[in-house]
Amino acid sequence: MSQISTLLAGLAIPFGPPGHLSGIHKTPVTGAVRVERDGLVCDQQGDRKRHGGPEKALHHYPLDHYAIWLEECPGLAGILEQPGAFGENISTLGMREEDICIGDIYRAGTSLLQVSQARQPCWKLNVHFADKKMARMVQESRRTGWYYRVLEAGYLQAGDAMELLQRPHQNWPLSRLLNYFYVDTLNYDALREIAKLDLLAESWRKIAVNRLEQCAVETWERRLTRPAE
Predict the structure, then answer these.
(1) How many independent structural domains does the chain possess?
(2) Residue 14: in which H helix or E strand, if any?
């Protein structure tokens, strides 16, 4: 059983091109923090259309990945000195995309969390890491982290166990989902299954449906590329 090594939150501040806000700058919080339907009460998102909300209430990124990033990209050493580099709320060791399935339910502190989707990296990672390729590298690595919806509000703090209670979709680890979204992108049998995954966030199921209907993959450039000034 893993436990939360660091719990993090941040405020929405001006970020990137003029007019943009982001809460990607996360710092550790101490003590028990209330978590509700939209996430930690002390956390903010700058673009509520694309970040935050019930299906992205908490972002979990494995601390396990940091060593791999440092090996591949030594120039990132400064920003990877401590958890929070990927805008995560929850940092753990021993939980990775291949270990987590869509719909998994965890007891964490006094809250009940359910895995809703993987992360779709966006251009804000490029700005945060000062590397215009970072979002694309995260996508291609499939070391994206994932999001939770909050089934029961409660309190979280560093040191809380992440206790797996239910695994309704054991055949759908996030690593498999990410492979079909970013590598084997037009596997129609897999897309038909994904479209019917009731516990997967609706926005991801819609992507699968659109690929089936259009026999084509949606463009990623707008999401992965920093907007013009």
Answers:
(1) 1
(2) strand 13-14
Angle at 227 between CA 221 and CA 229, to 5 degrees: 155
Buried b or exposed e, range 112-123, using 16+ CB within 10 angstroms? bbbbbbbbbbbb
- Of 1-15, 90-104, 147-161, which range is least confident? 1-15
Query: The domain containing residue 31 runs over which residues?
Result: 2-224
CB 10 within 8 A of CB 25: yes
**DSSP H or E run through 219:** none
Q: What is the mean predicted confidence (pLDDT) over 169-180?
A: 98
Q: Which CATH number characterizes residue 144's domain?
A: 2.40.33.20
Q: Is residue 220 part of a domain?
A: yes
Instruction: Check residue 125 and give its pLDDT.
Output: 95
In a domain, 229, yes or no: no
Average pLDDT of the chain? 94
Instruction: Report the predicted TM-score, pTM, of the whole model to 2 decimal places.
Output: 0.95
pLDDT tier at 51 (50, 70, 90 boundaries)?
low
Confidence at residue 86, expressed as pLDDT on a 0 to 100 scale? 97
Q: Distance between CA atoms of 115 and 92, rounded to whole angstroms?
A: 15
Look up residue 42 and give its two tokens: 């002390």
Q: Which residues contact 121 (CB under 8 A, 6 or more apart)?
A: 134, 135, 136, 138, 139, 144, 223, 224
Assigned domain for 200 exists? yes
